[in-house]
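Incident log, structure service

09:12 report received: a user says their structure output differs between two submissions of the same chain.
09:20 pulled the input from the user's history:
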Amino acid sequence: MLLIINMNKNVIKKIIDKEDSLDILQAYVLKNSNKNINDEMFQLFFGVIELGREIRLSLKNNNYKRSEDKISDIFLTLISICSNLNIDLFNALQEKI
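09:34 re-ran on a clean worker, output below:
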């Protein structure tokens, strides 16, 4: 796993509800992230490569749980990168829509 290794999954589940915004998740990840941007970029690239492998396997056996895990790892890493670069991901997404 990527960034999630450094965070307790149960803590994240208790703090972040489905109704919460990306802002809350981004603030939580920033508060609990202690990685430098180079490490996070490496994790992001490695995670995307792993996701490609998992999707190929998932397509063969119709089991998408591992792909789901990889996507969430990548998403948390991306949120952390944005937070460390002072990018408001929620506003960036709103502008794209």
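09:41 both user submissions now match this output. Likely a transient worker issue. Closing.
09:42 reviewer note: The chain has a mean pLDDT of 78. The radius of gyration is 14 Å.
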